[in-house]
Structures are given as C-alpha cells and as structure tokens.
Amino acid sequence: MSVGIAADERVARVGLLKRVLLKPELGALLGAVLVFVFFAALSDVFRSPGGVANWLDPASTLGIMAVAVALLMIGGHFDLSAGVQTGTAAITSGLLTTYYGVNTWAALAISLALVLAIGFVNGYLVVRTGLPSFIITLGTFLMLQGLNLGITKLVTNTVQINNFDKIIGYDVLHAVFASEITIAGADFQIAILWWVVATIAGSWLLLRTRFGNWIFATGGDANAGRNVGVPVARTTITLFMITSLAAWFVGTTQIVRLTSIQAQAGFGQELIYIVAAVIGGCLLTGGFGSAVGASIGALIFGMTSQGIVYAGWDADWFKFFLGAMLLLAVLANQYIRRFAELSRR
Amino acid sequence: MSVGIAADERVARVGLLKRVLLKPELGALLGAVLVFVFFAALSDVFRSPGGVANWLDPASTLGIMAVAVALLMIGGHFDLSAGVQTGTAAITSGLLTTYYGVNTWAALAISLALVLAIGFVNGYLVVRTGLPSFIITLGTFLMLQGLNLGITKLVTNTVQINNFDKIIGYDVLHAVFASEITIAGADFQIAILWWVVATIAGSWLLLRTRFGNWIFATGGDANAGRNVGVPVARTTITLFMITSLAAWFVGTTQIVRLTSIQAQAGFGQELIYIVAAVIGGCLLTGGFGSAVGASIGALIFGMTSQGIVYAGWDADWFKFFLGAMLLLAVLANQYIRRFAELSRR
Amino acid sequence: MTDSPLLEIRDVTKTFGNVISLSGVSTTVRAGQVTCVLGDNGAGKSTLIKILSGVHQPDGGELLLDGKPVRLGSPREALDAGIATVYQDLAMVPLMAIWRNFFLGSEPTKGWGPFRRFDRATAIETTRRELLDMGIDIRDPDQPVGTLSGGERQSVAIARAVHFGARLLILDEPTSALGVKQAGVVLRYIARARDRGLGVVFITHNPHHAYPVGDRFLILNRGRSLGDFAKSELSLAELTRMMAGGAELEELAHELERDPAATGKAPQ
Amino acid sequence: MTDSPLLEIRDVTKTFGNVISLSGVSTTVRAGQVTCVLGDNGAGKSTLIKILSGVHQPDGGELLLDGKPVRLGSPREALDAGIATVYQDLAMVPLMAIWRNFFLGSEPTKGWGPFRRFDRATAIETTRRELLDMGIDIRDPDQPVGTLSGGERQSVAIARAVHFGARLLILDEPTSALGVKQAGVVLRYIARARDRGLGVVFITHNPHHAYPVGDRFLILNRGRSLGDFAKSELSLAELTRMMAGGAELEELAHELERDPAATGKAPQ
Amino acid sequence: ACTSDNAVNVQQSTGASGGQGGYGYKIAVVTHGSAGDAFWSIVKNGVEKAGSDMGDTISYSSDGDPQKQAQLIDAAVNQKVDGLVVSMANPDALKASVEKAVAAGIPVITINSGASRSKEFGALTHIGQDEKVAGEAVGTELKNQGIKKAICVIHEAGNVGLEERCAAVASTLGAPIENLQVDINNLQSSQATIKAKLQSDTAVDGVVTLGGPVASVAAAAIGEAGSAAKLATFDLNADVAKGVQDGKILFAVDQQPYLQGYMAVTMLTQYKSNLNVLGGGQQVLTGPALVTKDNAAQIAQLAAAGTR
Ligand SMILES: Nc1ncnc2c1ncn2[C@@H]1O[C@H](COP(=O)(O)OP(=O)(O)OP(=O)(O)O)[C@@H](O)[C@H]1O
Ligand SMILES: Nc1ncnc2c1ncn2[C@@H]1O[C@H](COP(=O)(O)OP(=O)(O)OP(=O)(O)O)[C@@H](O)[C@H]1O
Ligand SMILES: [Mg+2]
Ligand SMILES: [Mg+2]
C-alpha cells in the first residue's frame, strides 16, 4: 500500500511556473515589475540609466534597513527605534570627530558600540519583561529622539552637525560609503552594491545557517522553540543588534554622503522599513518572510516615491499616489499568490 | 474522589488584593497613580484644579480614540489611518459648510457617512484579501493624507479651513462638542464627559454583549471563531467602522473647538492611540485587552506629556522624558502583574 | 428504519492544491444512529468532517440533508442546520474564559434593542452544569481555556457540541486525549445523543471505542473508501483487521515482551 | 539490575499560582527500562514530564541523574544531558518545513568559522529516512508542519525525539492521535529504544499500550501518587482497574448496546 | 436646504489666468518644506502663479530629509529641466546635487535659506533670506515691547528652520527665552501644552509662535490661562491677520513666501530668455515685513486666498 516518494498517487502535478509563483519573493518581484512598467511607460527619463541610478539610490539605504528589519520581523519583533538609531549613529560619529576631535576610526567604533548597546538593551528588555517589542522600542524611539536633539543642541547650539568632510580619513570613508560607479553614463551609488551584499548575507543567514533556523522558530512559536532547545533569548537580542548594525551602516552612509547630519535624521523611517518588509511578504506576526522579499519591497517603495516625481504629478497629491501605488502593489502580489495557490496550497 | 466546587483541594487561597491586581486595567491604574504622584510632587500647579482640567483635556480626545482602537486591537487589527481620518472628517465638514454652503447638519451627516465608508473599505479589504491590516491601513493612511492636503489646497488655495464659527448652528455644536463645565473654579472640557461615556460604552460592548464575545474570538483565534459560527468578517468590518466613528467624533470636536482645521490634522496620532491601548494592557496580537485599560493608557500619556511641561524640563529633551516615563509606566505595570501572578497564575 | 436518511454523502471529492484528500467517498447518517469513520492517519477523516460542518466545500459529489441537496457554505450554515462539530483541533480561543468559549457564536442574550446583552449568568451556570454532567468539575469558569489540560479542553469542546447539536453531532477523535474514565463518559454521551434521536458521526482510531456504539462503519484509506458497512455485516475482529493493523496489538504484546533471560541486562 | 537508576524523582512538588499540580511524587527510571506514567486528565502527568525536560522547575523535591542531584534549568540543559521529549503539544513550529522542525535546536552544520552553515542535505535526508522508518512516507520534506494531519505531526515529533534521545526518552501521550498501525510502530520504537539501553518515560491513557512495554508504573491522581509499582507487582487487569475506570469499558459495551427491540426506532 | 450664502469662506478669484503661449520652459522647484506646511504652501502658490503667468511648466517637489531632497534634485537634473529653484536648509547636504545641476548647465536660483552658500555652489542668485533675519526682527520688536521672559513654541521637533527662528529671536531679545515643543498635527493638545507652560511659569510675558495655526491656539491658551503675555508670530494666515486686527496678536512677521516662489520662477524665465539677473547676482530680499494692527486689515483677505 505504500508507494514510492516520487509517485504518490495523492499528489497531482504542478507546473514549474506555479511553483515559482509560490515563492513569496516572486510575488513581490512581479509587483515590482508592474510598478516599473507603469512608470517607465509614463516617463522615459525614469527608465534611462540616470533615472534608474536615481531611484535605486533611495531604495538602497532603505533596502539595507529593510533586510535587517525583515530578519527581526521574522523573529517576531518590531524595532520602532531603527530609524532614529541611524541618526544616533551619525550624530555620535559627527559630534565626536568634528567637536571633540576624536580620531575618525575610534569615533566610528564608538558610535557602532553605542548603537549595538542600544540594540542589546532593546532586545534584553523585550526578552526580560516579555512586553511587546512595539512598546519597548517605542520607548527607546522617543528617548533617542529626545537625546539626539538634546545633545546636538547642547553641543552645537544648532540642530545640525556640519563639516564632516573636514575630518581626517574622510577620503577613505567617502570611497567606502559614498563613492559613485559610472555605468552607461549614469552614476550609481556604491550603497546599491552594499544593498545587494546585505540582501545576500541576510538570505544566507536566514536559509543556510543554524541561526536562521532559530530566527524562524523564535518568530513562529517561541515556546516550541524553547522546548527543543533553541536559545530564544539570545536569538532575539542578536536580531535587535543586527538591526542596530544596519542602522549604524546607513547612518554612517548618510553623514559621509551629506557631510552633515540633522538632529531629526531618520525619524519616521522606521515605518517605511516595516512597510518594505511587509510588501516583500514578511508576516507581521513573525515566523515567515524573506530577505530578498524585503529588498524587493524596498525597490517598490523607491521606484514609487521617485516615479511619482518623474511622472510629474502634483506634489500635494504625492502621498495619495504613494498610498494608491503601495496598495496596488500588495494587492497584485496577493492576487498572484492566490492564483498560484489555487493549484498548490 | 470528586470534591465540591467550593473546596477543591488543588486550589490554594488567593487574597482579594492579589485578585484585584490581576485585572490588567488595575495594573495600568497603578501606573497612572504613580505618574500622577510623581508630577504632583514636582509641581503644585499640576495637581491644582486648573492643572487637572488642562491635562485631562488632551487625554480626553486621545482616550475616545484609544477606546475604539483598543476594541479594534482586541479584534486583532490595527488602523494606521485612524489619526488621519479625524482630519478627513473635520475637513469634509469644514469644506462643505464654509465653502459650499451645505446645511450644517447635512454636512456633518455627509462627513460621518464618508469616514464610515472609509472604515468599511479598510475592513472589507482586510477581510477580503487576508492581508495584514497594518499594510492595508497604511495604504489608506497615505492616500487620505494626500487627499486631505490635495483637496484642501484645491478648494481653499491654503492648507487650512477657517471660519467654522460662522456657520449656522455653531452654537449648538459648540454646546455639544466644545463647551466647558466649571468645577472648583476650573473649566473642564465637555470632551472629558464624552470620554467617560465612550469608556463605559466600550466596556459594556466588550464584556456584556454577544458582539464583545465575537471581538475576543476574532482577535484570539479567527479560525476557531469561524468554525463555531462567529461572523468574523462582519465583526472585523464593524470594528473598523467603530474606529471611524470615533475619528469623526474627535475630528468634529477639534474643528468646533478650534473653529478651523488644518490639512495635516491628525497625522501621526495613530501611533499614540495604539500606544495608549498597549499601555492599558491590550495585546498587540489581539484577543486580549480592555476598554478601561486603554482609557487609563490615554490618561498616562496625557499626564506625562503635560506633566513634563509643568515640571519645567528643557523642551529639547521632551521626547526623552516622554519615552522614559512611558517605559517606566509599562515596566511598573508589568512588574505589578508579575508580582500578583506569582500567587495566582 | 426510516426511509430517508438524515444525511447522505454521495461521491464526495476534495483536493487541496495538488493533494487529493478525499475521492469518491459515500455514506449515510440516519437519525438515531452512529456512523463511525475509521482509518489511518492522513486518510482524510478530518477533511470529510470539515465538509460536513461547512468548513470546506467539496470539489465534487453532493450532500443531501433529509434527502434534499444542500450546500453548507460556512460553519454558521451548518450550525443553523443543526449540525454541531467537535473539531480535532477543538476550535477554542485559548485566551478566552471557558464559559465564553462554550457559548461562542451562539451567545444567549437578554434585554432588547440597544440593551440586548450577553446573558452571563445563564451562560456561566449552563457551562458549569454541562461540564459537571461530563464529570469535569472546573474550578473557575472564568479560567482561560489555554490553561486547561489537554483532556479538560477536549471535554469542554464535547460538552459544547452536545449542548448545541440539534440534529447531527460530529466528533473528530474526541476520545484521543482522554483518560479511560472520561472516554467512557464520552461514549455514553454519544449513546445518549443517539438515543435522543440525533444522528452522530464519530471518528476514532480505537475499534474498541467504535464498535460498541457504531451502527455504520465507513473505512477510509489514503483518501478512498475501503467500504461502508452496517454493523450487522461486520464483527469487531473484522473491523479491527480492516483498520490496517488488525489484531496486531495482541501480536505486538508478545513481540514487545523481551526474552526473560535478557531482562535486567541493562547496559550501562 | 544496576544499582544506581538513570533518573530518580524524589518527592517532587509543583504549584502554579494557587493550583497544586503535583505533590510529593517519586519514581525511578532505569536504563533499559520503561517507566509508564498513567492517570486521569489533569492528574499532573504533563507537569511531571515538563519538570523532567527542564521546562518547569520543581517547587520541592529533587531529581537525581545517575545518583547525583541535578537542576534542569532549561530544555537545552535537559537535551544536553541526553534527555529528549515528545511534548503533548508537540513543540513544533507550524510555519516551518518538516526538516527544519526535525533539527530545530540541534542543527547539523558543516564548514567552519563564518562559513559554518546548516547542513541541509544531511538534514533533509535524515528526516526523510527517520520518517520512512516510522512508516510515514512524507511527500515533501519542505512542506510546512502546519499542513500535516494530526497523526503525521505526532509521528514527526516522535521520530525527532527518538533520533536525539541519547539516554532518556520521554513521550507524553505519543499514541493518542495515532492510528492502530502507527501506534504499533511507536510501541515498537519504545521497545527498541529500551533495548538499546535508553531509559524511557511513557505517558498514556491506554493500559493496553502501557502494559506490554512498561517495567514500572507510576499512577497519578489529582496531583498525588497512587503508587509506583514494578511490573511484577501488577497484572494488566489490576493496572486497568487502578486507572480509575477499570474494566469499565467491557461493562460499557453492554450498556451501550441498546435493547434490540428499540433498534431502528429512530424518532423522526 | 442648501443656501450658498452660508458659505463663509468663498473667495474671489485672484489674478487673471496666465499668458497664452508664454515661454514654455520646464522649471523644477525642490524645497525642504514638509507637505502641508503653511509657509511652503504659499511658496508653492507663488511658483505656480508665476508658471502660469510666464507660460512655464512647473514641477514642485519637497522633502524635509536632506538626503531625499538631494535625490529629488538629482531627479530634476535627470529630466534636463531648464531651470532649478532650491531652498537650502542644509546646504552641505545639497552641495553635490546642486553643483551637479550647475555642471549640467542648468541655471539654479536658491530661495529662502542657504544665502551664504548660494554663490559658492554656483547659483545665479538667492531670493529671500535666512530665518535668522526674520527672527532677529521679532526679537528686536519684542525687546522694544519690554518683554522680560518669553517662550518660543516649536511645532516640529528638530526642524532646522524653526530652530533657527527661535535662536535668532533669542539673539536680539536680550531676555531669557525658553523653547516649548508642541505637535502641529494635534493643535488641541498643543493648546493645552502652551496653557500648561503659562500656568506653571507665571513670569512668562511673551510668546513667540512659528506658524499661523499655532498662533491661533496660543492666543486661546493665553486667554484661558489668564496670562497677560504678549503674542508674536511668524507667518500669516487669515486667522492671524484677524488676531492682529483684534489685538490678540501683537504682530506677525511676514517673509512674503509668495514672492520667494513667484520671483524665482520669473527670474529664471528672464534669465533663460534674456540672460537677465535681478540685482546682478546679489541676494534679493523679500522681507521681513511686520504685519501690525495698522496694516492687517488689507492683508487679511489676501492671506485667506493663500497668497500672503
Ligand atoms: N488545508 C490543507 N492543505 C493541504 N493539505 C491538507 C490540508 N488539510 C489536509 N491536508 C492533507 O490531506 C490529507 C488528509 O488529512 P486529514 O486531516 O483529513 O487526515 P485524517 O484522516 O484526519 O488524519 P488523522 O487521523 O491524523 O487526524 C493529509 O495528507 C493532509 O496532509
Ligand atoms: N501553566 C499552568 N498554569 C496553571 N495551571 C496549570 C498549568 N499547567 C497545568 N496546569 C494545571 O495543572 C493540572 C495538571 O495538568 P497536566 O497538564 O499536568 O495534566 P495531565 O495529567 O497531563 O492531563 P491530560 O491527560 O489531560 O494531558 C491541570 O489541572 C491544569 O489545569
Ligand atoms: Mg484528523
Ligand atoms: Mg497532559
């Protein structure tokens, strides 16, 4: 009565196309194609090399954060302080170097240590108190926002820090974080490369390592995970620290690129990171999602926000178009998946 | 071998105090007392009748929204568009009356119908697509933000609508939405009364009606609920519409009180509503929480944000103190509950 | 026997994507009789039950209630048609109190108009009574269901279905998590429901539970029917044999006993 | 018999808030023997098991492993001490693939340093093999556990524990959701583990499952021990009687058969 | 019954429609004002009016985040616009993008903030002035009124422009001034916060707000708290003009944002067609002008129409 694995009579055939459509990332990818085709049809600048370089730029920093936030979300948590942490990292580096004359590398190391510590505290409080990460990180979000502003005001008496390009070693930093690569006559930011690296690293971590397995378990059913020996607390804290690491990277990119930073930098971005992850197929309840999906979500967001400008739509209605495009993208994504699932499950 | 219910040998005695502490609202209430005592000790104006009337005022409109949002959260959903909907309601009423000369009551009815329709669409899309409400309402949030600005700009050429006090029937509206009641020499806003009414109505709905039972089931385990015949879709849509109703009420209060409304009104408040609900003990994952708790959450937030001003702390650090107070309040709340649970479960 | 069965299942088929869960299964359930559905793990028993209770709609075949074709589009429709189900996964909301779960979806109300409200006193009282009837003496009807033991939870689900099952009662492995005593109580419940004239569909892996109460036996294997027998056509021994595994238990008992010489030879 | 048992449980007590789940329970588990824990629903069996597997810590009493007192502070510590458990709620993550669940918490790796990675090929292959060994022929190891039938899920959990149980294997009602054939397979597994020299703790409601494989029987009732017997001190009949309900099933069978005259008198 | 005489806000249409044909240039305006900000909405009105008057095509975009603003400038350059108008709250952050535009041969005019760096980046000229100038004017005027202790109400935490305004007021006031933070999107709660400050610190005798809507609630808060504080505000709207007329607001400082937008587009058009540069490349000032009881009445109507 037992039948070979290859030919179970209870399993119907499934076409390759449908199998492919079932991957959550691919649903999002089709959404991205849709958005691209839409704007490319409206504006030929949008699809020119210069245009592509332009909309890949905001997508890249968003994408780096989205990958980290996606891992955290798969692990079952939010980090509302992620956006503000980019500002904290940049402000710390900026103040230390330009106001206190600390060595550039030491300053970067200190700011990295600081945001990692913030990530640790976020994670530790979540693990220790069992409170939802939403509320814990909302607390740190508000506190950091106050600290960023308060300290910047205290030290500089203004709300921005300038002259980062005057520090020793700026050239090296610029080459690493903010140089441009010319392809087909258009200047592509190096951040786009880092984005690709982050996506690959995130995917690898998630799908190919033990830690990745623990992330899925922590978000999927922390209790079950704990019962079979998954170090749930350690995993959670590490995920918060990974988010902080990404925030440090993005914050540093920003201050190097702009040579200055504002006290309110990064504020409000946290929601956009989450949006990108969710568009890319991450479940808000944890336990499901992908790094590639989050990256594609960032791409959709980047294309849409710049595409509206290229399409020449009235800025007053910007948010309306943005909302409509987002809704259409996720609905299309969902529709495709449903369609594919009709023939598998 | 069977023992009477009153004297099961497996049940140890539990003190009344501990029983009381276990109610989630009461944990939050202790948090509120803590915050009150703290600021009352720092500033005697804070605890004067005038001070109390002043910090109850922002707490009241926040509280009305928090109750509705808490019901929605217990039902397992978020509404990120809740804040902007207050603006949409007020802008619609304002434009219709002051620019198009529509009869006051007709205009209010139209704006109510409009936001209820928005709530319906939110709920319908969530139910129909199965997408997380976070992403659906983020879409409507962005779209409404764009619409509020775009339409206000189009009609008025400015970003605000004035002269609401010139409309027919403003006196009646003022009496209902914005009058003041003098107690102990201080003027208390009537919104505080409506807040109390909303809290009682919300609690009654949640705990004493069939619909309340359905809310808990929808948020706790929608599948199980569906299997025993709970109309999950209808419950969800109704919850979104209740949130819209509250937004209409708060938006109307605002335009009546200020006699003008801005295109951006309400933007960003949605997170604060959720915070209030969460401080009050609502689970972010749904299925657990209370209306009274959400109201107390609003109270804590109102006291904290005004208390910082009464305490005379530096405004640059405002957000820092706000974050720290929030974190302390929820941690204290949590600690008390843990302590109480040590002796029950 | 009455001529028209309460429920007739004709050639029902159900696939999930590319998984064929059920194909061409038929049986009847008569008022005052118990139809047992037996079969291996993954045979499709729960799938069949979910079709009867409106959770899934069949891809092929039809259901006849009182001889008339029906479409059970949702669990609500099934409940309204008098069909109550104890699901294998119990369909309880863990965070909700026992009494709230008990009446979930069918809350008794009192008052009228805007003052119509959940009749708590009745609900709590009924819950306590129905559970006591089953031999479960709950400490506190306000306890969240999530903190009950597996068996206690199962008992609550069964008590609920028995309370609401007007014409047809469906039980998906109701005894699997139960102790001997509680399982006995459940079997008595099934018999009592049957004697009250209800139709009962009873799923179990235990032929010793099925045979005493069953009137018809539908045996499934890998989504297909191996036959649909009246009790008169089958002995307990035959039934046990048909359930893939047969009298294996007996035989197993011998096999498991180790050779007495080896006993105690516990390797360090 | 070796003189020092693998695991000794001495006077263990556990309360949850005001609920006393276990009080003063003792027994021993020897290498190469099976200790069965039997008892009604809510008797405290799962609570005892969770203490042995490090999920809960006892409020009183002690555990001795190889004669030395131990404190199992977490499931990880228990696993590291060679204790693997099949929980009643299975401890599986529904959204994760079968093979990922199988190796959850004990993932095999290959490569080194930053390139140390989950050895997927080994994991998938092992999962498939271990499940085939149990007679479960899974279609696709990548299928999420949440879409398996109840019994399939239980089989995966058992196969996992057997694979990782180095010294002591604990099974909390592993056979409750299983078909006759699969239950037989599990009993054989238990016997095989025992014969390999592992200590086994086996919880069940079915004396017919417990008696053939058990060497010791701990009987719990409402959190207290009714006694801890060696097999030689007890017959199957006595065991069944002790399990509150006794030979009731037999008797029940008669009771449930209706008076032949009434048969068919199905009320409309 | 719908009677349109109830429509209290209906406005007269201002100005004739734009010249037919016109110049047909494509001009991009990229500012740092957040969407819905009252001040920048008036700038946008000026830009659009100039566009229709000159017959140019305008694309207006804005983002408060400097990196995003830079990306919007890059997008404009990609589209090969004929002229670019930029406000530079954070000049360093925009440097690369503005220079890229100049290098691409696009004439650039900076408006509002960034005057000191305008020339350096290669812009034709700068129109308007830093918030500093307006702030100093307010500080001086309040000093003349004998203010002993003031609060400056910031309605968007960390906003560079707003912080500059408060700092500039402080620099010329010569009396203690404290910043107070409120939320522009929740004016009701803002009112309570201002009232709280006035209740708890009765020494405060001056209130400075940084935008029209906040000025209105500040006036109400002063009344409710029974304070005698005098109120001055930046920027105009209809309510502020009325408040000034009624004496609830001492004065409002007006930078004529409409003019900043209108003139920038006009000047770019003239430069493209005729290589004209007004002021020969020197900064063109648009203010500050004080709106007081004397001139408020005339301006009220215009403010309601969104041009002042
Ligand atoms: N929603 C679903 N999606 C995909 N496959 C499903 C779904 N529900 C059931 N199946 C598959 O259909 C088959 C039959 O499942 P079903 O739950 O009906 O079995 P069962 O007879 O109840 O088994 P058990 O005795 O273990 O409860 C199984 O192989 C299962 O994996
Ligand atoms: N975390 C907990 N909090 C409160 N009470 C608990 C908890 N866990 C178990 N209990 C209670 O302790 C008692 C024993 O539960 P346990 O799960 O050990 O029973 P069991 O013997 O495994 O029953 P079953 O055969 O039904 O699985 C039950 O009355 C249960 O309600
Ligand atoms: Mg089943
Ligand atoms: Mg148990």
From TrEMBL, chains A, B:
The chain crosses the membrane at residues 26-46, 58-78, 105-127, 134-155, 192-211, 231-250, 271-297, 317-336. It is found in: Cell membrane. The keyword Ribonucleoprotein does not apply. Keywords: Cell inner membrane, Cell membrane, Membrane, Sugar transport, Transmembrane, Transmembrane helix, Transport. It is a multi-pass membrane protein. PANTHER family: ABC TRANSPORTER PERMEASE PROTEIN YPHD-RELATED-RELATED, XYLOSE TRANSPORT SYSTEM PERMEASE PROTEIN XYLH. Part of the binding-protein-dependent transport system for D-xylose. Probably responsible for the translocation of the substrate across the membrane. This is Xylose transport system permease protein XylH. It comes from Actinoplanes subglobosus.
UniProtKB/TrEMBL annotation, chains C, D:
SUPFAM superfamilies: P-loop containing nucleoside triphosphate hydrolases. Residues 7-247 form the ABC transporter domain. GO terms for molecular function: ATP binding. Pfam families: ABC_tran. PROSITE patterns: ABC_TRANSPORTER_2. Coiled coil: none annotated. The keyword ATP-binding applies. Keywords: ATP-binding, Nucleotide-binding. CDD domains: ABC_Carb_Monos_I (cd03216). This is ATP-binding cassette domain-containing protein. It comes from Actinoplanes subglobosus. The lineage of its organism: Bacteria, Bacillati, Actinomycetota, Actinomycetes, Micromonosporales.
